[in-house]
Amino acid sequence: MVSVAQTDVVVIGGGPAGLAAAIAARRAGFEVCVLDRGAPPIDKACGEGLMPDGIEALRALGVLLDGGGAFFHGIRFADERHVAEASFSAQAGLGVRRTHLHQMLVDHAEAAGVRTLWRTKATAIENDGVRHEGGLLSCRRIVGADGVNSSVRRWAGLEPRGKGGRRLGLRRHFRVKPWTDFVEVHWGKGEQAYVTPVSPDEIGVALLGRAEVLGFSDLATRFPRLGERLKNAEPTSELRGAPTGTLRLRRVTRGNLALVGDASAAIDAISGDGLALAFRQAVVLGEALRLGDLAHYEARHRQICRAPFLMARLLLLLDRHDGLRKRALQALAARPEIFSGLLAAHVGERHPAAASLDILALGGRLLAQATAARLGNVVP
Asked: Which of 47-51, 149-153, 360-364 is the most confident on average?
């Protein structure tokens, strides 16, 4: 273990969010040290699709993802009857194995001069530093990036009064050539299957839903379209699982401390926003550290989380109401320009306020469908 007794910024948590925050702080001119009780490459069950705004945020940190993975150019929703899709209007997204992404960020952080203490557990925060198993690491600023069950958040007294509902995510990879350059979201009753290309001959499948309905054994029954694609596909990874849910805080800073990533704002994985949001937060945190003003981070954090939380609420509404979801997919398939507008706002290609017009258009379409159904007509 490298001996470090003093630094400017200590980042607790060495996952993608923590490493991005460390890179941002280093680019702002600070000496930075990352603590994590694990060791790279660190894996986690996730959809592994990095949206265009996440790639842009990494680029702002000087991180170029120029190796590994597979590009995707839009999102496709499918159920047993309807298929709706929308393309990104500018930059593509990237499907990349979590372990590969983590190792790239580790390499970039260490090349930038970030010091890392792996297999080192933080045990407390103090006014002048972070207490860990080897002693006290003195610092001026502390960044909590230790995930949705953050100890740093609890130590800082920033815990929320209540927590949103929790669902489960399962992920497994399969040796099969991607059949599309889109991320596919297959909708079932109370669950979703996300299919992401992660290499020229491999895909990742992430299942989201209630624990009692999830599993890969009867996938073909619950998702016939997907089951047919995977009928003879060889699994290439072990099954991994993790809870997913929503967590929103009143504050993400206190004194000399700031939270980033899932420690600061966890969004249900249904939105596909986790990594992109963490990287955007890291960029803003770097600006705040350079300005010496964490209030700047507090305000900007609230701003950049607004649209992703709204999108997650809309998607979870479709998850909870089977009939509404079916009508919404039918409407999006019939009016692809609505889907395109919503996706453009979701990935930062369009101002979020513009999405309100698409939501109104979608609502009008759903109302027309409901009225026609009552009258026995068909909406074209």
From this structure: 149-153
Q: Which of 286, 248, 332 is nearest to 24 (CA)?
A: 286
Structure tokens at 351: 């101002």
Q: Which of 90, 213, 276 lies closest to 262 in space, CA to CA? A: 276
Distance CA 343, CA 21 (A): 26
pLDDT of 160 reads: 87
pLDDT tens-place string over residues 287-296:
999 999 999 9
CA 49 to CA 204: how far, in whole Å? 9
Q: Half-sphere exposure of 69 toward its Cβ, with a 13 Å CA cutoff?
A: 25
3-state SS, 11-54, equals EECCCHHHHHHHHHHHHCCCCEEEEECCCCCCCCCCCCEECHHH
Per-residue model confidence as pLDDT tens digits over 341-379: 888 888 877 776 666 656 666 665 656 554 555 555 544
- Single-letter residue type at 130: V
- Residue 228: how many other CB atoms lie within 10 Å: 9
> Which span out of 156-160, 215-219, 348-352 was modeled with the highest average pLDDT?
156-160
177, with CB counted inside 10 A (0-12, 13-18, 19+), is exposed
Residue 40 φ then ψ, to 5°: -75, 155
d(CA 87, CA 228): 24
Residue 15 · residue 147 · CB < 8 Å: yes
